[in-house]
């Protein structure tokens, strides 16, 4: 990962210490090997301080010509307002996007939105993270092809947008490594990878995530 200050919305000298420490926690997170992640320019108008990451779940060598296949991708943005934010009920906010293509039978499941949201909350619970004020949307979009594209099979995509307020720990700093790991677990889940039990947290047991499907090349 690149140095944190390369993608901050303010100069490094003006960044509050809790936000610096939160970014260092993101950089130190231990993620599944299928995850490729890198910093990306952060939005500048959502909060005084912001840091953003892009991630993809990659299956090596499964493309038509042996290239890697992206099974799912997304973005995580960490927002910080030292003065606090009434809607957040805290000084930090995690904002995420996750998207993937689904198998047809999954795309037609009427319970897909509720199940997808449970993947997110299950991933957070499995990592033992504490959070509040969760909100989000689950969008399902179907594509049907005609004319010169008629040979293509119909495709269904899912897009999850979510945000939550991480509970602040010692020094006002949340455990952002755990939050990032949970979000990457969600990406792997929507990509169809089998769950990997995270290390036990101080809160106790691990909650297994339901397996959706096996990974497929697009």
Set down the secondary structure blueprint:
Elements (H helix, E strand, L loop, with lengths): L16 H12 L6 E6 L8 E11 L9 E17 L4 E13 L1 H4 L4 H15 L4 E13 L11 E12 L9 H16 L27
Antiparallel strand pairs: 1-2, 2-3, 3-4, 4-6, 5-6
Helix pairs in contact: 1-4, 3-4
Protein name: DUF3000 domain-containing protein
Written overview of the protein:
By secondary structure, this protein is an alpha+beta fold. The protein is about 20% helix and about 35% strand. It has 4 helices and 6 strands. It has helices spanning about 15-30, 105, 110-125, 175-190, and strands at about 35-40, 50-60, 70-85, 90-100, 130-145, 155-165. The protein has a 6-stranded antiparallel sheet. A hairpin with an 8-residue loop joins strand 1 (about 35-40) and strand 2. Helix 3 (about 110-125) runs antiparallel to helix 4 (about 175-190). The longest helix is centred in the C-terminal third of the chain and has 16 residues, at about 175-190. The protein starts with 16 loop residues before the first helix and ends in a 27-residue tail after the last helix. It comes from Streptomyces chrestomyceticus. This is DUF3000 domain-containing protein.
